[in-house]
Amino acid sequence: MTIYNLGSINADNVYAVPHLPAPGETLAATGLRNGLGGKGANMSVAAARAAARVVHIGAVGPDGRRAVERLLEYGVDTRHIAQVAEVTGHANIYVDAAGENVIILCAGANHAVPHAEIAKALSSANAGDFFVTQNETNAQAEAARMAHDLGLRVVYAAAPFSAGAVQAVMPVLDLLVLNAVEAEQLCVETGSDTGDLPVRDVMVTRGGEGCIWYTAGAAPQVFPAIPVTPVDTTGAGDTFTGYLIAGLDRGMPMAQAIGLATRAGALMVMRHGTADVIPDLKVIEEFAFR
Question: Is residue 60 part of a domain?
Answer without folding.
Answer: yes
